[in-house]
Amino acid sequence: MVEPKLQAEDAGAAEAAVMHVFGVSAFQRGDIAAALNFMSRACAHPAAPAIWHRNHAEILDRCGHSEAAEAAARLALLRDPDNAAAWETLGTILVQREKLAESCACYEKAVEIDPAFVHALNNLAVTLDRLGRHKAAVARYKQVLRLEPENLEVQLNFVTLLGELGRYQEGLEILHGVLDRRPDSMRANSLARQFKRELRRHAKPDKRSGSSAQCAVSTPP
Q1: How far out from the chain centre does Cα 37 lie?
Q2: What is the value of pTM for the model shown?
Q3: In sequence order, which residues have a C-beta less than 8 Å from that of residue 63 and are 6 or more positions away?
């Protein structure tokens, strides 16, 4: 015979699991308000696992409740400190809150746990770039591209950084490969035009300085 207290606990856990399923379903169909309602009810259960709190954090963040989203993501990590996806979620929420250095630490933790976590690696590279840590950002982009050499988003993010660093020829070589596969990519075409203009501009001799030098030579003492 099941004790009444245990039976009630089992029923509460089952109801919370149903609320979580309803929350995920509502989120997938775009009903964010219903998703938040269901997920909040699911996560009120004291035994709610890390994945529920992570999902709750993402929905809260989508609703613009960034402080509550951060708290939910941290709760997920209390449940499971080795959850790479929860570290990535917290990092993304912190970016929204302009806590860039802390978000980098979260992304670093995510890729330490899962070195092949491409999304976290890309986000880490983007955030490092925003912090002005360009050398580290380049290294992370290269790490992602070793894992997924034809990842279009990562390639274009990397090329954009190369442009910021004035490495136009290197960026153009990557863009040639991108455009062979995706000639319709508006961003790749735009970057290619920009880089070609910059390379031409840097290749042109300075006519004004040459003219000034000639005048200086021909001017009588």
Answers
A1: 27
A2: 0.81
A3: 32, 33, 36
Segment 38-58, tens digit of pLDDT: 999 999 999 999 999 999 999
Kindly state the percentage of the chain with pLDDT values over 70.
87
Surface-to-core class of residue 165, CB atoms within 10 Å of its CB (0-12 exposed, 13-18 middle, 19+ buried): middle
Contact 25, 1 (CB under 8 A): no
For the chain, the first-to-last Cα distance in angstroms comes to 115
Other CB atoms within a 10 A radius of the CB of residue 216 amount to 8
pLDDT one-digit tens code per residue, 91-147: 999 999 999 999 999 999 999 999 999 999 999 999 999 999 999 999 999 999 999
The pLDDT-based confidence of 13 (bands split at 50, 70, 90) is confident
- Cα distances (Å, whole numbers) of residue 168 to 90, 139, 163, 181: 34, 17, 6, 20
HEC states along 78-89?
HHCCCCHHHHHH
Instruction: Answer for the pair 174, 155: CB distance below 8 angstroms, yes or no.
Output: yes
Render 130-198 in DSSP notation, one character per residue.
HTT-HHHHHHHHHHHHHH-TT-HHHHHHHHHHHHHTT-HHHHHHHHHHHHHH-TT-HHHHHHHHHHHHH
